[in-house]
Amino acid sequence: MRRFGRTSALAALSLGLLALGFAARARWPDSRPSLDCPPEAVRLDPAGLATCGPGTVPTGSQALALGLKLDLNAASESELALVPGVGRDLARRLVSAREEQGRFVSWEDVDAVPGVGAAKLETLRAATVLDAAAANGSVW
After folding, report:
1. What CATH number is associated with residue 66?
2. Helix-hairpin-helix DNA-binding motif class domain location, by residue (predicted)?
């Protein structure tokens, strides 16, 4: 009889922990944004924390982490290399092509760069823009 009591207690404890796990999973991670402003309005305060108030405009990897898009016609080689799937070699070719032919005016111009295939083009379209005004406040 004593063995049945111990087993029941362990089963009840296990079910309680399982229920607690399900409740925690349903609430975390929270899908709501941490800040109440759009990504292009986010600034960094003097301590380097993201805020919707005054501060400096994030650049480089900070801006990519915040969901901002790079201006493909202004981004440096090192900034382009931060885009997942691009890497240093393709970033170098993109910057060289831009310097040789001038601004990219269409995605077909970007697709013509050696090393940019269909998959890389989609990656670039997701992380960059060709028009600085469409970069939603991005200054680079």
Report:
1. 1.10.150.280
2. 78-97, 108-127
State the Cα–Cα distance between residues 116 and 49, nearest whole angstrom. Answer: 35
3-state secondary structure of 68: coil
Domain-embedded: residue 138: no
Question: What is the Cβ-side half-sphere exposure of residue 130, based on CA atoms within 13 angstroms?
Answer: 14
Domain membership flag for residue 31: no
Contact 136, 67 (CB under 8 A): no
Secondary structure, 3-state, 111-129: HCCCCCCHHHHHHHHHHEE
Our count of domains for the chain comes to 1
- Measured in residues, the chain has a length of 140
Give the pair of three-digit tokens for residue 65: 């982490």
Domain hosting residue 85, numbered range: 39-129
For residues 44 and 54, give the distance between their C-alpha atoms in angstroms, rounded to a whole number: 8
